[in-house]
Amino acid sequence: MVSIWYPARRAKGYSRQPYMPAGVARSVDESGSFNLAEPGQVDWAGIRTEAAAVAPVDHREGRPVVLYSPGLKVSRTLGTSTAVELASRPGREASMKRKVGYTWRLREVMAQHQIFTATELVPLLRERGIDLSASQVHWLVSGTPERLSLQVMAALCDILSCTPADLVATTAENAGVRKTATGDLPAPSANVAKLRPRAARILPDA
Q1: Which residues does 100 contact at the CB level (< 8 Å), separation at least 6?
Q2: Which strand (E) or helix (H) includes residue 100?
């Protein structure tokens, strides 16, 4: 048996799809409701999803086809919520990508340990087997490195008594999600509306 879930153009006026068919609901109830309740305690047939039965398809944009199977002889009914969630998302959201970034906090952590210049860092790194020139260390402190050897990271953590997480602050968000703002401005108050600019007087030099 195969169930097809798809994005609908509208759902108003259509009955909500049950979470599981009546026959499956009866079988689940008689078998002990997944060991959650005694027979007759849960009305599985009465539970409805947010999906509308036989509603018109939304053809406005293409969407990926997702084949979902619980496998391992698990009842497919347990995946109903997942199927509804996947079908309700537009294609660009179902395949949403994550945008990740990071902030290099070396200068900030150095200041917390009273180290304020790259020059001070050069001999400390050299003591730990990291032989970098003054210009390289200056770039390490003032720039944002895209690549950094673990040996250098370990030396910095030892010098500053910190962890890599202290030196690198990471961020992650859904790509393409934008915040919006209204273009409407509040009307000026009555007192502000009455204000008029006054002409300036130019005084002769004394």
Answers
A1: 170, 171, 172
A2: strand 98-104
Let me know whether 78 and 114 are in one domain: no
The C-alpha atoms of residue 73 and residue 93 are separated, in whole angstroms, by 30
Which range of residues forms the domain containing residue 124?
100-174
CA-angle at 185, arms to 179 and 187, nearest 5°: 155
Q: Give dist(CA 14, CA 34) in Å, integer.
A: 30
How confident is the model at residue 185, as a pLDDT? 41
At residue 182, the pLDDT reads 37
Q: Closest Cα partner for 112 from 155, 167, 164? A: 167
Residues paired with residue 101 on neighbouring β-strands, in sequence order: 171
The angle subtended at Cα 175 by Cα 171 and Cα 177, nearest 5°, is 105
pLDDT, averaged per 10 consecutive residues of the chain (206 residues), comes to 78 84 86 83 86 83 71 69 73 60 93 93 94 92 89 94 92 57 43 50 56
For residue 57 the two structure tokens come to: 């398809």
Residue 29 dihedral angles phi and psi, to the nearest 5°: -65, -45
Paired with 129 in beta bridges are none
Structurally, the chain folds into a number of domains equal to 2
Cβ neighbourhood burial of 137 (10 Å; 0-12, 13-18, 19+)? buried
What's the confidence (pLDDT) of residue 72? 60
